[in-house]
Input
Amino acid sequence: MAYQTTTVPTDVLSGFVADIFTAAGCEPAEGARIAHHLLSANLTGHDSHGVIRTPRYILWLREGKVKAGQTISVVHETPTQAILDGNYGFGQTIGPLAVDFGIAKARQAGMAAIGLRNSGHIGRIGDWAERAAEAGLISIHFVNVQAGELVAPFGGVDRRFSTNPICIGVPTDKGPIILDFATSLVAEGKVLVASNGGKPVPPGSLIGPSGELSADPRMLYGTIENTHVRDSARGEGALRTFGEHKGSGLAFMCELLAGCLTGGGTSGPIPGGKRGRIANGMLSIYLAPGSFGTSGFSDSVLDYARYVKASRPAETGGEVLIPGEPESRTRQERLKHGIPLQVETWAAICDTAHALGLSPPAIPAPNA
Ligand code: NAD
Output
């Protein structure tokens, strides 16, 4: 399917999105922080977690499902552990606070395990691993979405998991290596992008109520009327996990670690069958490489990464990439040339701005 995009300079997009959140009731610093992290997802090529989320976040703010101006509460604490409550604040505010809490503990003790519950959507998890890596720490993150079931388990058709990302970040002297992916075949936001006329999701990413495999976003959102805010409660189908039983097993473990252990709860069952507030849970483990008694960690990692990349390409002209490489390349490219958005995505953000009394900035005409 052909679709039109428009390329928006990063500073224009960032300022516009920040203004939208500020007009909706956030302090300017929070508005700017939300915009920064949404753009970070777009810059790394994960448009599913970028500014496309703006209309939905504003709706949630209006409905009281996410709150402006929140901070973390410490529910339980030991020298190496904590359970933090995000109080349904914006994930872009709660995420950095939770990560910084873990960094401080791991710097003291060499390692820390921090459970976060009741956080607003924390978006691209790679941002949090990058933050830990900037502080010199390895980090491992297991994430779920309370009351956010969208994904069928291996062998089933009914939704039982959320898209449950797993992320591992390793610092090196040449920048971090970040593995960061959803355990569903595609992140929900990629179905959202496809539903807006963007890149279609791969065949078989979704499964229907009778077990039929599909790539049709309507499996998730039901009839896609002329509404800009998609509602995943309306579809009868589900996303599928990647890697058959293996991805399904990882998704299951995310529920146990990010949902049961943090006390935030699993993605289902949804109380009363009705979706209320959707919030992320995350178990994060932070490790200080210097405290393990081994030396030359960074050199050893970089030597090995070079060795892996030197594997002969499977296809002529192909290339072996290591985790995080596609994102850092896309970031360089988009910082220079701007962020391509589907015209439908841009229109939805503009509708949200108009409703808040803001005029959208002028942007370049769409590319064919
Ligand atoms: P994806 O399928 O694009 O996989 C991304 C990972 O694979 C990255 O680590 C990337 O470096 C690596 N990768 C990609 N191409 C590669 C290649 N050719 N060779 C080697 N490595 C390669 O990601 P996704 O599953 O669509 O997830 C997208 C984003 O959505 C992630 O940032 C994730 O954190 C986020 N997410 C968030 C939530 C939430 O609830 N907050 C839920 C689901 C997903």
Q: What stands out?
A: The pocket of nicotinamide-adenine-dinucleotide is lined by residues 46, 48-49, 121-126, 143, 145, 163, 165, 167, 178-182, 186-187, 190, 280, 321, 323-324, 326-327 (CB under 6 Å).
